[in-house]
Design brief:
446 residues; alpha/beta; Rossmann fold; five-stranded parallel sheet; 48% helix; globular; binds NADPH dihydro-nicotinamide-adenine-dinucleotide phosphate
Length: 446
């Protein structure tokens, strides 16, 4: 697309979607990559494909009333943004976090279009969630909230239409309550309507581990392209939720040493390497805070109210949330000799940070490529549900590894093809875009 057309479109996106900075940030990055296509694809411009892609196919906002343990009525807001179904049913997680608003869900849904395309699997892009905060709530409160959320959401989801999964604040407990209510309302055991299910009721082995494993595998592939690997490296990881825990596990399996983990209260630095069993016990069993780690591990120190980017490492894996790694953090990592950064979270590095990494020739893998392992394994869960089958851990992990290696290869090949060798952002955006754009062209104006 030509530069003037892109500038005009971006101005229009800003005007039509006011006060949604995260959505603007995500669109801006993709549009910047599409500039590199120049006038090579007039067919996309003629059909106004990019303009269509920036407008969600459907946005649903709804009230979620529920009663807390004190008998008080609480009101939250629910969202589902069905962004693009050119390649398959809308697919993307649900996020329960007090920071959730329409702009956040739109940024996540927009990113999901390209990410899902990159997996090579038949899934469109969507995202949803609520400003509900599961932290500090009892299981009963979480259940009542999930049931109320599903009373509205069930109308829009299904195996062939829209398939939600987990994200921040939505793990196996929440998916269980959501699926139970969906089954009850619809009177159908439609396993393919939600992913991230428990292993005894339609879930897939490796889905829990997939996003974190995939991010570490992607980092390893980036390093392998420079004839090195994760083996023997020191790695900083942010977050201590689903993605972070399994990123640490895979880093250790590949011979690296993850030395940090964090949550919104601060980070721990354990120079001997994070004790994963202890971390899992604190976070998965006890739903505790990261500071508890140093009560058991004397080799570790806790740094409150901070992210782990001042720790000298070879590789950084931001796995917590958007815009958690700023330009100033990137400069610290670069100064300390970081070689590679792979995003386990969605858009954790802000624009200045990405620019700093790319200008310093640090290998930088954007989330829509590096964290695609989660949604890819969700699509594998859907395949198993459709076959009424369940695959072994080893087979499913092998499929995940192949998918991550393919994504890595496609990013590099596409970046090269469009004149930006080694630029994973460019490669991911253009490769993801073209597949969706070609399908949209085939469908005509719909
Ligand atoms: P979890 O809820 O399991 O964990 C989130 C972690 O990030 C927690 O440690 C949390 O700390 C921390 N965190 C969240 N918000 C903030 C904040 N504002 N500041 C500092 N720390 C914060 O979520 P996931 O691990 O599933 O998701 C993490 C990231 O990965 C998100 O960006 C998500 O979109 C992305 N992702 C997840 C996928 C998945 O399969 N789960 C798939 C692809 C991407 P605290 O508990 O203190 O809030």
């Amino acid at each position: 697309m030509l530069d003037e057309a892109i500038d005009k479109l971006y101005s229009k996106v800003l005007k039509r979607n006011p006060a949604e900075p995260e959505f603007h940030q995500a669109v801006k990055e993709v549009l910047a990559s599409l500039r590199a296509m120049g006038d090579r694809h007039p067919e996309y411009a003629d059909a106004r494909i990019v303009s269509q892609m920036c407008e969600p196919e459907r946005q649903i906002i709804f009230r979620v009333p529920w009663i807390d343990d004190n008998g008080v009525i609480q009101i939250n807001r629910g969202f589902r943004v069905e962004f693009n179904s050119a390649l398959g049913p809308y697919k993307g997680g649900l996020r329960f976090h007090p920071s959730v608003n329409l702009g956040i869900i739109k940024f996540l849904g927009f990113e999901q279009i390209f990410k899902n395309s990159l997996t090579g699997l038949p899934i469109g892009g969507g995202k949803g969630g609520s400003d509900f905060d599961p932290r500090g709530k009892s299981d009963d409160e979480v259940m009542r909230f999930c049931q109320s959320f599903m009373i509205e959401l069930y109308r829009y989801i299904g195996e062939y239409s829209d398939v939600p999964a987990g994200d921040i604040g939505v793990g196996s407990r929440e998916i269980g309550y959501l699926f139970g209510q969906f089954k009850r309302i619809t009177n159908r055991y439609e396993s393919g309507a939600l992913t991230g299910k428990g292993l005894t009721w339609g879930g897939s082995l490796v889905r829990t581990e997939a996003t974190g494993y995939g991010a570490a595998i992607f980092a390893n592939e980036m390093l392998k392209s420079k004839n090195t690997s994760l083996d023997g490296t020191t790695v900083s990881v942010s977050g201590s939720g689903n993605v972070a825990i399994y990123a640490i596990e895979k880093v250790h399996q590949l011979g690296g040493k993850a030395v940090t983990a964090s949550d919104s209260s601060g980070y721990v630095y354990d120079k001997q390497g994070i004790d994963l069993e202890l971390l899992k016990d604190i976070k998965l069993n006890r739903r505790g805070r990261i500071g508890e780690y140093v009560e058991t591990r004397t080799s570790a120190r806790f740094v409150p109210n901070n992210c782990p980017w001042d720790v000298p490492v070879d590789v950084a894996l931001p796995c917590a949330t958007q815009n958690e790694l700023l330009g100033s953090d990137a400069k610290k990592l670069i100064k300390n000799g970081v070689q590679a950064v792979a995003e386990g979270a969605n858009m954790p590095c802000n624009e200045e940070a990405v620019e700093a990494f790319q200008n310093s020739e640090v290998l930088y893998g954007p989330g829509k490529a590096a964290n695609a392992g989660g949604v890819a394994t969700s699509a594998l869960e859907m395949q198993q549900n459709a076959q009424r089958d369940s695959w072994s851990f080893d087979y499913t992990e092998e499929r995940l590894t192949q998918i991550m290696q393919n994504i890595h290869r496609r990013c590099l090949e596409t970046a090269e093809e469009y004149g930006h060798p080694g630029d994973y952002v460019m490669g991911a955006n253009i490769a993801g875009f073209r597949k969706v754009a070609d399908a949209m062209l085939a469908f005509g104006v719909v």
